[in-house]
Amino acid sequence: MIRQLPDIMIDPVVRMALAEDLGRAGDVTAQACIPAGSRMRAIVGARKPGVLAGMGCMRLAVLAMDPAAKIVEHVADGEAFEAGTALAEIEGDARALLSAERTGLNLLGRLSGIATLTRDYVRAVEGTKARIADTRKTTPGLRALEKHAVVCGGGINHRFGLDDAILIKDNHVVVCGGVEPAVTRARAMAGHLMKIELEVDGLAQLDQALALVDQGRGPDVVMLDNFTLEMLSDAVARTAGRVTLEASGGVNLATVRGIAETGVDVISVGGLTHSASVLDIGLDAV
User: Fold this and answer.
1) From its phi and psi, is residue 118 left (phi > 0), alpha (psi between -120 and 50) or beta?
2) How many domains, in total, are found in the chain?
3) Are 113 and 189 in the same domain?
4) Is the pTM higher than 0.85?
5) Which domain holds residue 228?
6) Per the domain annotation, does 2 fall within a domain?
7) Average pLDDT, the chain
8) DSSP 238
9) To pair with 105 at 20 to 30 A between CA atoms, which of 25, 224, 244, 264?
10) pLDDT (tens digit, 9 = 90+) per residue, 28-60?
């Protein structure tokens, strides 16, 4: 899980976003209206309550435009805040700050929205053993940042890409000719540090997976895809702790509590990253 992102991972994303916004001639509005050398002090303020993620993006956007700018962060990633909270204070070259403003706010608002939504899911399953996980349904180019935001909200990270875990989905099973050949081939290829997850679409496939587990050649995790609550409870009883169970599909804030109460270990939610609203955060000169 990404608990703290080093600047070296954030900086390329910020610079690409700045280059997109600055275009071919830079911030012509700031150049036209603001005298060269003018100074500016601003507050990064929360207009809605939430959980912070992405302050590093704002900081690096400002420093890319004005390396001498002074930035004081009052709220850290992962901390909750109320509407009206001053999240940070910035002082620097006025043209530079105004040119960096939108890029910094876009990323900060996007990531804080993800962190805030994740916290809502985590709170919804409090008292159960289920943990809330993200998926690979992320914005292209922003995966590391968005997965960091999930952790800021109290969630956990699923795999980061196609290369760090084997996830056998329904199409893999069909092409391979069934659960057993798919898992067997995966086991033959996987190294001792590579985990294998199998997606099943019903209790019959779960039983096939559990038979392989009992033989010492099954998956490490079984994903229960679009199971009803009754099926999830049945799956938990059949598994009896022999393998980690992940529930996925059709999860939202109205359904997640019931899913968690069936006893599954993990609930993966694509909506954490593909459907989170941008949190309203602004930058105002003072």
Assistant:
1) alpha
2) 2
3) no
4) yes
5) 123-274
6) no
7) 97
8) H
9) 25
10) 999 999 999 999 999 999 999 999 999 999 999
Cβ pair 221, 241 in contact under 8 A: no
Going by the DSSP 8-state scheme, the letter that residue 262 receives in this structure is T
Provide the pLDDT for residue 2: 60
Verify that 93 and 154 share a domain, yes or no.
Answer: no
CB of 223 closer than 8 Å to CB of 205: no
Query: Cα separation of 282 and 105, whole Å?
Result: 7
Same domain assignment for residues 62 and 131 = no
Identify whether the C-beta of residue 90 lies closer than 8 Å to the C-beta of residue 77. no
Looking at the chain, the whole-number percentage of residues with pLDDT higher than 70 is 99
Active-site positions?
A: 102, 137, 169, 199, 225
User: 221-225 and 244-248 as β-strands: parallel, antiparallel, unpaired?
Assistant: parallel
> At residue 35, what are phi and psi to the nearest 5 degrees?
-60, 140
HSE (CB half, 13 Å, CA atoms) of 169?
A: 6
Alpha-carbon 178 to chain mean position: 32
> Taking 70 as the threshold, does the pLDDT of residue 190 lie above it?
yes
CATH number, domain at 65? 3.90.1170.20
The pLDDT tens digits for 90-132 are 999 999 999 999 999 999 999 999 999 999 999 999 999 999 9
Q: H or E element: which one contains 17?
A: helix 7-22
- CATH number, domain of 224, equals 3.20.20.70
